[in-house]
């Protein structure tokens, strides 16, 4: 959509710098693997002070640079959910880790997502917090690291986009 002739997409491109990192786990893509729980470190549990993967380190550096320049408002990490999931949904940072403005912006983003992502695979409002109870390395998940290390207004989510649907 963002590259389409849609008037709203064209307006967005004029107002925003959109950075796309197509693949973080290039090695596994090359061999046809998904990369989930890759050893020695899952790419999406590597967002820390000492990341193992060069791709994660590079993405973190770019994010910090964008944020320092005041140019980061939204971070969306695209993932594939389990084979049985039929609709997109978000993983979001734990609410208690967000500022008031960050929580307000996240709520606005998910509300607008429900209005805009209508099909063929519709976002129906499902969001899951991924905090302490979700994973022992929850602070090292990309969107949680973004929420903790960028300006208060920034929205950071993981969008799970179903791939195995009829």
CATH class: Alpha Beta
- Count of DSSP H/I helices: 5
Can you tell me the CATH architecture? 3-Layer(aba) Sandwich
- Could you name the CATH topology? Aminopeptidase
Give the overall shape, derived from the CA principal axes. globular
- Round the mean pLDDT to the nearest integer and report it: 91
DSSP E strands, number:
4
Which regions are unreliable across 5 or more consecutive residues at pLDDT < 50?
A: none
Strand coverage percent: 5-15%
- Largest sheet: spatial strand order: 1-4-2-3
Number of domains: 1
Distance between the termini: 22 Å
Please trace the helix and strand order, writing H or E for each element.
HHHEEHEHE
In CATH terms, the superfamily is Zn peptidases
Gyration radius over CA: 16 Å
Structure description:
The chain is 33% helix and 11% strand. With 166 residues, it is an alpha/beta fold. It has one domain (7-160): Aminopeptidase (3-Layer(aba) Sandwich), CATH 3.40.630.10. Helix 4 links the parallel strand 2 and strand 3. The protein is globular. It starts with 6 loop residues before the first helix and ends in a 6-residue tail after the last strand. Residues 32-51 are annotated as: Disordered.
